[in-house]
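Appendix B. One record, verbatim.
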Amino acid sequence: MAKELLELSLLDILPSSIADDLNVQAITRSIDPEMQSVSHDIRETLILSRIDELPEPVVDLLAWQWHVDFYELARTLKMKRAMVKGSIPWHRKKGTRWAILKALEMIGVKGTFIPWWEVPGAKPYTFAIEAEITSGFWSQLPNVEDVIDVIRRAIFESKATRSWLIDLKTIIKAEEKLPLYHGAATFRGGLHEIRPEHPELNDTHLTAGIATAQGGYSHVGLVRPKGAQTAAFSGIATLQTHYVTIGPSGA
C-alpha cells in the first residue's frame, strides 16, 4: 500500500533478505526520524509556489535576487509579494505598454494606457496614463504628492527610453461607511376659503358657515449616536396654522 513521503519508513523498503534481521530493524528505526525530518524540509525548496507563505525577510531577499527595480515603493507585505511574483515576466517585457500597466498593478493601481494618437495635439512616442487609486492604496500614502511620485516612478522604470509621459490623470476612489440620520423641518401657514357655487338667477339658497383656527407645534428627535460615531441628524418640527371660512360667494 502506497504511503505519503512523510509517513514512509526505511522498514517499508528494506529488501526481504535483511528485513527480518533485528539489528537492521533497530538501525532503521533509529534513522527514520532524521530521514523524515529531511523529507519534511523538502518543501522549503519551493519558492514561487509558496511565496504567499514566506516571511517578509525572505521576500526581501528574493526581491534583491530578482532585481525588482521599484521594490522600495511597496508599502505592505502583500504589495512586496505581488512585485516579486511579477518581476520575472515584467523584466521580459520591460519597455512595453504591458510592462507599464503591470507595474501599476503590482503597486495596487489600476492603470489605463492612452497612446499618443488618442491624445489631442500629442506627438509620436508620447503617451498618457489614467491611474485609478483605491482607498486601500490611498490609506498607505495620504499625501497627494506622494501618490503621484510613486505612480510616476513605476511608470518611468517600465516605459521605453524613447517614450515620454505627457499626461497623468489620477482618479481617487475612497469608500467609507458613515451612519447618516436625516429629517425635515417645515413651516406652513395659509388661508383657505371654501364656497358653494354661484346661485343661478332667481334661485334661493340657504347657506351656513363655520370658521376654524388651529395652531400647534410638535418636535420629534432622533437618538444621538453613541461613542465616537460621526453622524448628521435632525428632527421634524411642524408649525401649522389654518384659517378656514365656509360661506356663499357674493351674489
